[in-house]
Model the fold of this input.
Amino acid sequence: MGDVEKTLLEETAAWVDEARAKTERTKKPWGVWIDAELGLRNHWYPAALSRDVEDGGFQGITLLGEDILLARQGGRLFALEDRCPHRGVRFSARPLCYTPETLTCWYHTLTFNLDDGELRTILNEPDSPLIGKLRIKSYPLEERKGIVFVFVGDVAAPPLEHDVAPGLLDDDAVVYCADPYVIEANWRLACENGYDPGHQFIHNWSPFSVKNGIPMSFGWVSNQESVLRTTHYVDDDDGPKGFTRKAAETNIVQEARIPMRDGSVVDVTLPAAEGKTPEELREIAEYAHSCEVGLWMPCMLKVEPWPAEPCIHFEAYVPRDEGSHTYFQFGVMKTRDTAEADAWMNGRAREEWEIPTVEDFTIDDAFARKELQKFYGEEDGWLRERLYRPDIELTMWRKFVTKHARGVQTRDHARGYFPR
Ligand SMILES: [Fe+2]
Done:
């Protein structure tokens, strides 16, 4: 770890150790994170799954507050501002393409180029002086591994690989995509929950843990020293930016007690730890040691392996609006063997990854994120929160993003491209 990371750690450590009370935003060392309610501008995001936009089909999505229409015509996929500049209706309300090159507004026949968004004609007034002057925004997009990635911003889009966790786009990555769903919580709460070492506690009640009799601990607890040892930073200019932590040197808390008023103590056990010997508990903790968790800009988590070899779990918390994000989950196996890849996509991924993870585990993360939303979304949680020591890794992420974000999305950006 270099000097930069050490400074980052020390600066943020002060904020959690001292458990400071309400402070104005400008004094926190992670201002960009507090401002980024609608997401980070000038980044690539997973926007949809390829399989959900068939040829001739459409999907209206909301990304960082921007309404976007995905349309596949003549085998080619397009992403356009989902708002007619005439009177503002969404094309996706009744999408209409008369030709594979054009999108026509269902209301007053304004007809736009699918590729660059320029107004090509108006069916009921083809001599209109508006033609050649009006346009809607067209978004850079890339389809890789069955995922539609869209770039939201004003600058030239950097390579997609810079905004995706390492490995997901590799040639030998066989990517099984679960159906994405919307969670009523701000995207930042999801990033923090996913990486939060202390949040393992909630998974003691996840069906995966209950069915398999696996106690998930009271939380992994890091301190400054162990974070220095276990965290690996990646912030090269020509690749993805993020950091990863190996569980190996984290304190995985398996035993806890509550002091009583009369001076006695009550031992507390995790539900699945009942009846297990210390040796068995140690083995389970050893298993957890093998996994590595990473958080990558702008909003992707990678856990390797999860839930077991050979699977690598990726998830993305894509900003939708102030109060919700779209939750994408990908189960990945690395192989160049076609038969093995087919087996993964047609059964194994469902059994070994999707059921234990998407159905039986991350539903508790979704629950926790929604519970955070009132405090952070409707109240002043970002200022009033009282952090404790294990939160140091969350504040490091906030600072990391504050340093590396290409921009912050605002409501003005979301209101559209055409002049007002
Ligand atoms: Fe979790």
Q: What stands out?
A: The pocket of fe (ii) ion is lined by residues 199, 203, 365 (CB under 6 Å).
